[in-house]
Amino acid sequence: MKLITVEEHYDTERNIKEFNQYSAVKNNNPRQGQLRPDLVDFGNKVAYMDQNGIDMQVISDAGNSPQVLPDQYAVDGAHAQNETLAENISQYPDRFAGLATLPANTPDEAAKELEYAVTNLGMKGGIISGSVNGQFLDDPRFEPIFAAADQLGTTLYLHPGVITNDQKSMLYDSKAYSALGATMMAGAMWGWHMEQGIQLMRIITAGILEKYPHVKIASGHWGEFVPMFLERIDGFSPIITALPLKFSDYYRRQVYLSPSGMFTAPQMQLVLTEMGADHVMWSEDFPYVQSGLETRQFLEQADVTAAQREAIAHGTAETVFNLN
């Protein structure tokens, strides 16, 4: 079985330095220093893939990326990040494909960078992590990014990002548990994913996928809570929007899901029931998650048909990211 994983991450020495120096959004991953070799060194990545039966990774920068730098650094930082990624991919063209880092707070520049990265560097789409300085992507000022992606017929990976301090304070800080507990609850345990589900709900409700039907959206962590509420959302959507299709129609037409290392059978069966295997891809979230042989074995042993397994393992990703 050929295996492609699609939410896998990298970083560069330049970005690590600039992030530490300029970012107002602080790194909240206590293992970031420990993971640095696996983020930066593509030889390490290939060795890990060889050991664990992974044929290809779709690589992106997420979280601590130039996206969150002040505007005067974000555009050049994203461009440098994409050039370095393309250079690394050129050394292992059969093992990696890339998604462009986008300076989303400067939407016109982000649209230009996406077009450049796809047409000149061979990137397979772009990635945006979380809200953008607390703003969601349904704001009209972000429309140039969707227009560019639609014209290119490419994919935007909507990855979680660090939520704002105000959100964290209101929703997750508590005297009943530790500050570390609040940070984890606001992040990888719950908050990142809830916010990213809200992000996608707002994008569809605002009519962005109606206006831009050629954009493909990739969403990790089994869809960031949205699939379990599709029917519920459909029931209320006509009250707040006059779109010609149901919310779930846009979602099932243009959104593609993966587990991001959440190798859990109940969520997998729910997503397959709601979306079908042609909208499901595989992902480990390397190097933040390192499941080793389970990355392959879970899918090999999953209660799915042979056709579903092949689609999830590589077929859907090959279509979504134009890997053939």
Count of helical stretches: 15
Kindly report the average pLDDT value. 95
What would CATH call the architecture? Alpha-Beta Barrel
Q: DSSP strand (E) fraction?
A: 5-15%
Overall structural domain count: 1
Helix content: 40-55%
DSSP, total strands? 8
CATH C-level label: Alpha Beta
Largest sheet: 5 strands, parallel
Between the first and last Cα atoms, what is the distance in angstroms? 16 Å
Order of adjacent strands in the largest pleated sheet:
4-5-6-7-8
Might you state the CATH topology name? Answer: TIM Barrel
- Rg, Å, rounded: 19 Å
Pairing-aware structural class of the strands and helices?
A: alpha/beta
Helices and strands, in order, run as EHHHEHEEHEHEHHHHEHHEHHH
Unreliable stretches (pLDDT < 50, length at least 5) are none
CATH superfamily: Metal-dependent hydrolases
Shape: globular
Describe the model.
- This protein is an alpha/beta fold.
- The protein has one domain: Alpha-Beta Barrel (TIM Barrel).
- Helices cover 50% and strands 10% of the residues.
- The strands form 2 sheets. It has a 5-stranded parallel sheet. Strands 1-2-3 form a 3-stranded parallel sheet.
- Strand 2, helix 4 (71-91) and strand 3 (96-98) form a beta-alpha-beta unit.
- Helix 4 (71-91) runs parallel beside helix 5 and helix 5 (107-120) packs parallel to helix 6 (143-152).
